[in-house]
């Protein structure tokens, strides 16, 4: 059968599949149903009544838990909100309006962020809506072309920050090497108030047997004499419940004091009941890792199904490649130049909703129109198999047309 005939046959099935966002599947959320009954008291270890106002910085035991998870001192951790994205957003807004410690508000002059691509669309949306100009820098196998990054930040004082997803990046699955982490920590920046927005969203989200580790950015920055450079973000969104998890931020003591000052204006305190039950439920690093292994058992077959379908239908197609991530939530399908948008449109016609082509780039513009983000987590295994096949057939048709 020709590519067109195969595509038409697939379309006739009349399927409706959504592969657009990296959401945990219901079975993954079920893994943490014990959270509902995990609360044995509303009193925190220091006597705080978790039901009441207060505790901007988070409960001591919640800070201690994230300190263990992130391998940083508890004094350098804030636990707040259910979404790390909201913490990232607020760090940027506080920096724009008030400046980082010891510096003028960013808004007083043009602000640019370096954006490793392909990257996370919601990072880019924060920049776009808050008036921060974005500059693409290509991701490489071990992180970044550091010669390029060092040159840009040394020359351009408008570059105030940079997005980093250091492990199993969204969507490329890139893991930053120790050398890249060291160079990011030590590089000379023309802007003295430069910040690394270190989004450790997939720290525990391994897909393979190997548990890859990334060098400690806060330690590297302190060692290089830039202790305030990095702010680390994490959450339990894809550990427990994506909509009702707990988020954390880790940074230097100066940054923590700065954050606490500003966050205390925005809110009279976070949801400490949720913090307490997460502490009871997640307990410690080994308990969390055992839970992540259960997530892995559910996710791995779905990723394998996509990879097998791509291999079967696209293995021989010149110019087409895809990532084989060792962790995280995504596969990046890379098409020949100019074929991604058309593929996504054809997939849509065949009943498969994908993240819009270009979404993984600032302003939604993939300069070569090549990247399609595949999110295999949410649909069932059967649906994933069908969807991956449909995407592959859509790409083949896009190339044949
Ligand atoms: N960062 C990255 C890189 C992500 O992929 C996601 C979720 N897709 C988030 C942050 C969102 O994290 P949270 O739920 O803690 O806001």
From TrEMBL:
Gene3D superfamilies cross-referenced by the UniProt entry: Aspartate Aminotransferase, domain 1 (3.90.1150.10), Type I PLP-dependent aspartate aminotransferase-like (Major domain) (3.40.640.10)
Organism for this UniProt entry: Duganella sacchari
Name by which UniProt lists this protein: DNA-binding transcriptional regulator, MocR family, contains an aminotransferase domain
The UniProt record lists the keyword DNA-binding: yes
Keywords: Aminotransferase, DNA-binding, Transferase
Matching PANTHER family: AMINOTRANSFERASE, PUTATIVE-RELATED, ASPARTATE AMINOTRANSFERASE
Gene Ontology molecular functions: DNA binding; L-aspartate:2-oxoglutarate aminotransferase activity
């Amino acid at each position: 059968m020709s590519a067109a005939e195969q595509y038409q046959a697939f379309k006739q099935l009349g399927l409706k599949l959504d592969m657009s966002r990296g959401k945990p599947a219901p079975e993954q959320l079920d893994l943490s149903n014990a959270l509902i009954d995990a609360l044995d008291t509303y009193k925190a270890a220091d006597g705080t009544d978790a039901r009441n106002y207060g505790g901007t910085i988070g409960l001591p035991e919640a800070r201690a838990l994230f300190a263990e998870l992130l391998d940083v001192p508890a004094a350098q951790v804030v636990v707040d909100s259910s979404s790390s994205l909201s913490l990232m957003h607020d760090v940027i807004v506080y920096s724009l309006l008030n400046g980082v410690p010891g510096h003028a508000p960013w808004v007083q002059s043009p602000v640019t962020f370096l954006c490793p691509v392909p990257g996370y669309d919601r990072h880019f949306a924060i920049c776009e809506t808050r008036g921060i100009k974005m500059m693409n820098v290509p991701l490489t196998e071990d992180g970044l072309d550091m010669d390029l990054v060092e040159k840009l930040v040394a020359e351009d004082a408008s570059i105030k920050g940079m997005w980093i997803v250091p492990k199993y990046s969204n969507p490329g699955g890139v893991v930053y090497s120790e050398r890249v982490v060291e160079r990011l920590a030590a590089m000379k920046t023309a802007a003295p108030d430069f910040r690394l927005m270190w989004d450790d969203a997939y720290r525990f989200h391994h897909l393979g047997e190997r548990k890859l580790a990334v060098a400690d950015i806060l330690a590297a920055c302190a060692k290089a004499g830039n202790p305030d450079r990095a702010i680390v973000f994490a959450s339990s969104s894809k550990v427990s419940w994506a909509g009702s998890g707990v988020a954390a931020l880790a940074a230097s003591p100066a940054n923590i004091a700065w954050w606490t000052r500003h966050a205390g204006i925005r809110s009279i305190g976070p949801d400490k009941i949720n913090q307490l039950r997460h502490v009871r439920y997640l307990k410690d690093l080994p308990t969390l890792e055992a839970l992540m292994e259960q997530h892995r058992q559910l996710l791995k077959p779905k990723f394998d199904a996509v990879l097998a379908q791509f291999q079967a239908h696209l293995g021989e197609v010149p110019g087409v490649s895809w990532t084989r991530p060792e962790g995280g939530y995504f596969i990046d399908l890379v098409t020949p130049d100019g074929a991604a948008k058309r593929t996504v449109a054809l997939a849509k016609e065949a009943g498969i909703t994908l993240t819009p082509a270009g979404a993984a780039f600032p302003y939604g513009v993939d300069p070569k129109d090549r990247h399609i983000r595949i999110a295999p987590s949410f649909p069932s295994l059967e649906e994933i198999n069908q969807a991956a096949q449909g995407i592959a057939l859509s790409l083949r048709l896009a190339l044949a047309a």
